[in-house]
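User: Please fill in residues for this 237-position structure.
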């Protein structure tokens, strides 16, 4: 079967790495992600990953602890590097070649971000893990995902979440919430739906980069998406 998407950027939340724990990294979730990434890589998909750091530290919480916003954001960026290293280790245990790339220089553990080099890694079949966000405070990992996806000419952003798409309201709180199979960028904005932060969302809208929001906990969903099945909610137009 022909692949619908040849190059994808997978956006994962740091919180989902916690699994059933309240903090840190659950090895079961790490293995779960590595299994899915390996499966679509072996189908010939070029895959980049951006992972958040909320399981370790959230920059937005810094003000409550007296830490300045900028300092807190940098702490959050470092948390994404830790998660990136963990995912890299899980993938390499499966024999997958990876490159951990960071927006903040730390040569001992990761490559600095160079666009052409990152694209070359993808072309050679390596999983590229982008860490440390954009390298600047005031930007979320959603913004980093949108930025990197556009820079590497990804076909789509795949945003893995705990729910199976975008709803009219939070389905975990409102049993009457209705799911969208597809929706236009402008309608997401007019309805005030929470898909990504506005900076990231606008960047995708301006560059016609589609987003698919889907349930990452289903082990078959990534494969189904790259083969063109309707999974989750597609945001485009």
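Assistant: Residues filled in for all 237 positions:
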């Amino acid at each position: 079967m022909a692949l619908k998407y040849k190059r994808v950027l997978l956006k994962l939340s740091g919180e989902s790495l916690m699994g059933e724990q309240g903090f840190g990294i659950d090895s079961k979730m790490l293995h779960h992600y590595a299994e899915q990434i390996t499966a679509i890589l072996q189908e010939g998909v070029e895959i980049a990953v951006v992972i958040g750091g909320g399981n370790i530290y959230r920059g937005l919480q810094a003000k409550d602890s007296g830490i300045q916003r900028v300092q807190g954001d940098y702490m959050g960026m470092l948390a994404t590097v830790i998660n990136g290293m963990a995912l890299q280790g899980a993938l390499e245990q499966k024999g997958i070649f990876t490159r951990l790339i960071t927006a903040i220089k730390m040569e001992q553990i990761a490559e600095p971000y160079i666009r052409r080099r990152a694209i070359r890694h993808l072309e050679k079949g390596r999983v590229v893990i982008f860490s440390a966000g954009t390298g600047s405070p005031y930007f979320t990992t959603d913004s980093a995902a949108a930025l990197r996806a556009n820079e590497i000419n990804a076909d789509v952003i795949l945003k893995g979440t705990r729910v199976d798409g975008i709803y009219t309201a939070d389905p975990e709180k409102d049993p009457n919430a209705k799911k969208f199979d597809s929706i236009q960028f402008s309608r997401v904005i007019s309805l005030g739906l929470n898909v990504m932060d506005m900076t990231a969302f606008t960047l995708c809208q301006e560059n016609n980069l589609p987003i698919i929001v889907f349930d990452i906990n289903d082990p078959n969903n990534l494969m189904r998406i790259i083969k063109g099945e309707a999974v989750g909610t597609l945001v485009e137009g």
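For context: The chain has a mean pLDDT of 93.
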